[in-house]
Fold this sequence. Notes:
- By secondary structure, the protein is of the alpha+beta class.
- The chain has three domains: 8-55, Uridine Diphospho-n-acetylenolpyruvylglucosamine Reductase, domain 2 (2-Layer Sandwich), CATH 3.30.43.10; 58-114 and 156-210, Uridine Diphospho-n-acetylenolpyruvylglucosamine Reductase, domain 3, CATH 3.30.465.10; 216-337, Enolase-like, domain 1 (2-Layer Sandwich).
- It is built from twelve helices and twelve strands.
- Strands 4-5-8-6-7 form a five-stranded antiparallel sheet. A four-stranded antiparallel sheet has the order 9-10-11-12, with helices on both faces.
- A hairpin with a 2-residue loop joins strand 6 (171-176) and strand 7 (179-184).
- Helix 4 packs antiparallel against helix 8 (161-167) and helix 10 (279-290) packs antiparallel against helix 11 (303-322).
Amino acid sequence: xxxxxxxxxxxxxxxxxxxxxxxxxxxxxxxxxxxxxxxxxxxxxxxxxxxxxxxxxxxxxxxxxxxxxxxxxxxxxxxxxxxxxxxxxxxxxxxxxxxxxxxxxxxxxxxxxxxxxxxxxxxxxxxxxxxxxxxxxxxxxxxxxxxxxxxxxxxxxxxxxxxxxxxxxxxxxxxxxxxxxxxxxxxxxxxxxxxxxxxxxxxxxxxxxxxxxxxxxxxxxxxxxxxxxxxxxxxxxxxxxxxxxxxxxxxxxxxxxxxxxxxxxxxxxxxxxxxxxxxxxxxxxxxxxxxxxxxxxxxxxxxxxxxxxxxxxxxxxxxxxxxxxxxxxxxxxxxxxx
Length: 338
C-alpha cells in the first residue's frame, strides 16, 4: 500500500490569508480537491513539507456574471457541467465532463485541472520503479528517458480544461501577498515539462474569466485509451465565430497532450477566415493544425499514430462546430480505443 509522507496541513479561510500563508511557508503547496497531488505524494513525485488547503476559502468556489463569466478556481468540475451560466461555453463543459469519473469530478476543481502536473510513462510510477531506472530529469534524476539527449523534460501536458479555456479566450487572475495580476490563460503555460507554469511559487490561481462569446460556437474532442477515467493522449478544442450567413469571422484551434503545454494553431485558424466552413477549408485547416503537434513516446499509443490522427480530430471538431451531427463518430472512437 502506498502511504502519504508526513506533512503539515494548514487551512486558511480567506484568499488573503492563504496568500500570506503561502508567502511565509517555503516549499508549501496548495491543495483543493487533491485528486492529482495526493496520488503524486504517495508515489513521492511531490513531497511538500506543508499543504495549504483551499477548501474552506469560500470566495474560490463562486461562479459570477459580469463582463462575461467569472469562475473561482475552487469550483468543482461537476459544478461546471451543471451550471446553466456556462451553457454557451460548450467546449469547457465538454472538457470538464470527460475528466476522470463522477466521484473525482465531485472533488476535483477547475484550478487543479488548469495547474495539473505534466505526465510521462517514466515519471508516473512509484518511487521504487523510478529508482530502478536511476530516476528521471523531472524528479531526482538528470536524464529525460523519453529522449536521453534532450536538455529539458518532455513530460506532456494532460489538462483537459486548459485547451478549451484558451480556445474560448479565457484569462486567469493570480493572487499573491503582494497583489493581483491578470494573464491570458495561454500565457500561464510554457513548453517545459518541469516548469510548465509561469505562475510564481507564491501565487494562487484565484479565478478564470471568460468573455461574452456572441456568435461563437465551440467544441472539445478527446482521445484516450478508455472511455472514462483516463487522461487525454490527444485533445482538440475549437472555437469559431460565424456571421449570420455562415462566414467565419474569427477562429481558434488548440491542441492538448502533444507538448508540455497546450498548443495553439493560429496558422490553421487563419485558413478558415473569410468564408464558410466547407469540407475543403476544414481539410486545409486540419493539415495545418497537425504541424505544431509534437507527440513524444511518453504516454499511451504510438506517437506516429497520435500525430496522424491529429488531422482527423481537428476535422471532427470543425465539422461539429459547423453543425454536423458527430455523435456517431464520438461513439465509434470510444469503441475503437477500448
